[in-house]
Amino acid sequence: MADVAKLAGVSHQTVSRVLNGAPHVRPGTRDKVLAAIRELDYRPNSAARALVTRRSQTLGVVSFASTLYGPASMLDGIEQAARSAGYFVSVASLRSLDARSVQEAVDRLRDQGVEGVAVIAPQISAVGAVSRLSSSVPVVAVGSGSRSRVPMVAVDNLTGAAAATRHLLDLGHGTVHHVAGPAGWLETQDRLDGWRRTLEESGAPVPQVYSGDWSARSGYEAGRQIAADPEVTAVFCANDHMALGLLRALHEAGRPVPGEISVIGFDDIPESAYFTPPLTTVRQDFGELGRRALELLVEELAGVAHARSHVLVAPEMVLRRSTGPARRPA
Amino acid sequence: MADVAKLAGVSHQTVSRVLNGAPHVRPGTRDKVLAAIRELDYRPNSAARALVTRRSQTLGVVSFASTLYGPASMLDGIEQAARSAGYFVSVASLRSLDARSVQEAVDRLRDQGVEGVAVIAPQISAVGAVSRLSSSVPVVAVGSGSRSRVPMVAVDNLTGAAAATRHLLDLGHGTVHHVAGPAGWLETQDRLDGWRRTLEESGAPVPQVYSGDWSARSGYEAGRQIAADPEVTAVFCANDHMALGLLRALHEAGRPVPGEISVIGFDDIPESAYFTPPLTTVRQDFGELGRRALELLVEELAGVAHARSHVLVAPEMVLRRSTGPARRPA
DNA sequence: GCTTGCGATGTGAACGCAAACAATTACACT
DNA sequence: AGTGTAATTGTTTGCGTTCACATCGCAAGC
């Protein structure tokens, strides 16, 4: 910076002013400085700036299972929004969910000097662990259900699950079976609740729940059992990947979809339109979720008086060919 | 830090020594300092450290299409390896591929003070844009074919494509059709080359190439045309998502797989084992790719005399049910 | 013509840390 | 005891910025 100042024939402070768009700099002076900057290909040193301003311009993201479509899309949305808000994004992805890992990741991020943290870790335990450090750094949770103390942005899983269940019921199915996600995830819980509640409200029996881990493999395994049960005519899967596995198992067992069994998923991953058959599902816009979460975080940083701390995004049903009317009982 | 020093009754320099594990600190002194650190919950200021050491402990990743399974997995692998090497990871994901965007992303990262950059942007244009700035910051490319001047880590697409094609040929198919990826991607080119070369070596005719954009939708569209062509008995798709779309189109057209047509993919995404039918494919371990890339980058940073600048990882064929022997011609 | 005030610029800290160098102490050996 | 060397600790300096304050010049007001 000293070099720039010398070349432009001004003081380093004036250079700083130009850099930061401070007022009271004569246009002519500004131009000279700008020219010197270009001439020397000068780059401000972000560490020095961070040191003195105490602002790193960096936000942290802690994420879990980040190879999955949902988390990856949220991260992408976050990064996009962060960039346009002038922040860098530093990621820390977790391999395991225990409180220690989460703590470690957040500590790491904090040691790096992030100004805020977004958590893509929709587990009850993770949110708990995170909310404890919210005192030192602003935190938002993304896609994390609705029970957390920290501000969050999520799809309305309850409503989405209810809509899916209702759709099947309206098609004439006596009841709807459910392949749930793994225990401990907020999504799992909310979708389970939405499903159960809808069944109960309609007076439909609430059958035993099958439980998976979001993977196609686990959906397949649930599907093998479901295929063997002649009672089942409609299944709501807690996500599309499990629905894929379920579809596969049903196909192998010679149970036509939607002829004998209707299947509905959740997420609307890009592939689900090309499953066999194309999957009816509940769309959630992960990218949008990420963007909204980041906006929330930025507001928090700016000290906006907690305008909204919980943002619920409405999901949208996407009707395709995996659901159909119940067969009339003979 | 001054507070810690005072509490421990030593100079700030000794505190610094303890922090950095410098030698020649008496165990007793070290303990006192450590105790003081804990007592005050002292956190070193990374900006100050970066300022004086000129090392940010941060690596940048520029990535494209980061919601896809491949890029997301590579990012994950990179992050994991970076963390264990003591680096933070800052991401910049691109929405578009033009040179300006790439340049902008890298500039951003550099302004932030990253010590090195990993590029997950397997486009010819991106690699070109990146290699121009390699002078100022070490760069590695991940999964980016083999034509770049920058060090890179990639799966051996040529060999993988050749193996896939050979597999189909060995099954007795007269030739193999190919659904390629979008133009401009290094993977597209290498897989295309591997396929064509194998065909030529076997004296099989080289049919017209179908071209997609990696998405299931584009595979579906290619599939509609392929289904209408009675000559086709074997198809090699440049990735699994397109294979999914292809499978769907074939199914709709009443063309059994592998009964009438064999299909092989590339990538082995977790879902492909649950396609209908389960997909034979060529596995690439994206996470491993990311990790290896990061190791390479760290070596570069450490000044290791360019031990290896191009690392090729062997892919592995995964046989499932979507491929089978060619029907004997009547 | 001499204040007064504001726009425009410069000067000297200070941010929190590590590197270089200086100083002190301990210990072994002669 | 005397000397040398290594271990241990302290002091000073500077990294590249921004901030707080000082300075300068010029135009308006009386």
What does this protein structure show overall?
The structure is a homodimer. By secondary structure, chain A is α/β, with parallel strands linked by helices. Chain A has twelve helices and twelve strands. In chain A, the strands form three sheets. Chain A has a six-stranded parallel beta sheet with strand order 2-1-3-4-5-11, sandwiched between helices. A four-stranded parallel beta sheet of chain A has the order 7-6-8-9, sandwiched between helices. In chain A, strands 10-12 form a two-stranded antiparallel ribbon. In chain A, strand 1, helix 5 (about 70-85) and strand 2 (about 90-95) form a beta-alpha-beta unit. At the A-B interface, helix 4, helix 5, strand 2, helix 6 and helix 10 of A face helix 4, helix 5, strand 2, helix 6 and helix 10 of B. Chain A binds a DNA duplex (30 and 30 nucleotides) through helix 2 and helix 4.
Oligomer: homodimer
SS elements, strand count of chain A: 12
Radius of gyration of chain A: 25 Å
Strands of the biggest beta sheet of chain A: in what spatial order?
2-1-3-4-5-11
Largest interface: A-B, 54 and 54 residues
Strand content of chain A: 15-25%
Structural class of chain A: alpha/beta
- Gross geometry of chain A: elongated
In which range does the helix fraction of chain A lie?
A: 40-55%
Short summary of the structure?
With 330 residues, chain A is of the alpha/beta class. Chain A is 44% helix and 15% strand.
